[in-house]
Design brief:
By secondary structure, the protein is mainly α. Helix content is 69%, strand content 0%. 31% of the residues are buried.
């Protein structure tokens, strides 16, 4: 019976920096499921998320020499996955429905009470249904915590467009949540 040696993250990183394939495989297995969750937030479906994940891990292994041990390694991988997902979208999809901030009527937010009643999977499904531009900005701002300036640089849009995309995304989500809640309680809507 073959027993596999358990490596620490630091040992795996060191071995990955030495281009050891087994270490790369183990690192991938360690983080793939969490990072797939990150990619799913930016993708239109699971297949696309898996493509984003693969592209992201290629970059992880190409850039692993740049990791200096400052901050969490998982956070470092996560940032690469987010950037890789944005690059994927810029390459394969057009960022559609960009609306300047002056065209947005009012700043809406998702009702906290309604979202608390939704299962995480329901909310994920709603976010995945957003138009690509809305979905990307919503994820970067609301989930990843990037500023509008950072989002504008990553997505190749203006800060105003980032703000309006977030506002529109929130409005669409609020409307969708209200519809879901109405159906759940038997109201027409």
């Amino acid at each position: 019976m073959f027993l596999e040696h358990k490596y620490t993250i630091d040992e795996l990183i060191k071995r990955c920096k030495a281009n050891e394939r087994k270490a790369q495989e183990l690192l991938y297995k360690q983080f793939a499921s969490k990072m797939l969750g990150v990619c799913l937030r930016y993708a239109t479906d699971r297949m696309e998320a898996e493509d984003m994940l693969q592209n992201g891990f290629i970059k992880v292994f190409q850039k692993i020499e740049d990791y200096r041990g400052e901050g969490s390694f998982e956070g470092w991988i996560r940032r690469i996955m987010v950037h890789s997902s944005i690059e994927y979208y810029r390459k394969y999809h057009k960022m559609v429905q960009l609306v300047d901030v002056e065209q947005v009527d009012s700043h809406s937010s998702v009702d906290a009470l309604a979202t608390s009643k939704l299962a995480a999977n329901d909310l994920m499904a709603l976010v995945q249904q957003l138009a690509p531009g809305y979905r990307i900005v919503f994820n970067l701002y609301a989930i990843e915590g990037y500023s509008h300036r950072e989002i504008a640089e990553m997505a190749g849009i203006s800060e105003g467009a980032s703000k309006s995309q977030l506002s529109r995304a929130r409005a669409v989500l609020k409307e969708q949540i209200a519809k879901m809640e109405g159906k759940r309680y038997g109201y027409a809507g």
